[in-house]
Amino acid sequence: MVVSAPSPRAKALNALRREMLQYLELPANWDGYAGLPAHPQAMLDALEFLSRLPNEVAVPAPMLSGAGMVGLYWDRSSQYASLEFEGDGTYTYLTDGPDGYGGAEGVAAATLPTTLRGYLSSLTPAE
Questions:
Q1: What is the pTM of this model?
Q2: pLDDT (average), residues 66-78
């Protein structure tokens, strides 16, 4: 039986998930400004989104708001995209690039709109 090693992408996604899950264990006031740990449902929504992330989309970086909302972002020299999961089964996204700003609210966590998919696919992986 031949067992192959995980791909670099799989390793990066696993590391991302591990880092995000640590957000659930943060103490209250983790940021010095009354920050809350990650909202459990926001975490589940973000992990659901990641489980469906197409291979052509670079692995994002994680973030956590002081209100406990879990986020993902891609920051490139002239392009930026962020998604914020509030824990209600949806996310809000923002994009900023040479063609201007974009975004939407209330996007189902298990979906990736065509416009956003195209934008994220155009981002080159971080160096």
A1: 0.91
A2: 95
